[in-house]
Amino acid sequence: MSTATRVSPSRTSLTAFTALRAAAAAALAVVVTFSADHTPSFGLAVFGVFAVVSGVIVAAGAASTAVTRTGRLLVVLRALVLLVVGVLAVTLVGGGIGTLLTLEIVGFLGAGALEVLSGLRRADASVASRDLVTVGGLELVVGAMLIIILPDSLFAVGVLSAWGAVVAVYLGIAAVSIARRDGGVR
What we know:
By secondary structure, the chain is mainly α. It has one domain (11-182). Helices cover 81% and strands 0% of the residues. It is built from six helices and no strands. The protein is globular and about 45 Å long. It starts with 10 loop residues before the first helix and ends with a helix. 38% of the residues are buried.
């Protein structure tokens, strides 16, 4: 009786997962960029919706993108962090800059740390592993930057747009790259 703990994710599921994450980040960037409202309430609303959507995407992709049971646990924990922070942000949408900064910092640092750890724990040096470390590292940088700078609401909301745009482009390119390899084009 064998209890295999390794599951190799298919390139198709990895492509879909990466593309969905890119689309969510792009939507965040577009919504914030084209809004004149950069109040804490707006920031909490868009950050909350983005975190919930991202949490659902991450949770849905847990089984198909993590290689080991420990990897799946890290992915599920990351999804829970995103979901909790997102629900709190939407629930506390009337909160001020302190609420926005606290939830952004917890969300970026918590999810980022778990994402980097997931990428570093992977046994392979695959595209997925590099993407986890890169995107998680960007989240850690944004979280640390929010602590160090202690910005006003314009910056705290604007950083969501900038981060979303960078991550959307990065993950969009990664999704295309994974799909091309899947189709045999190298």
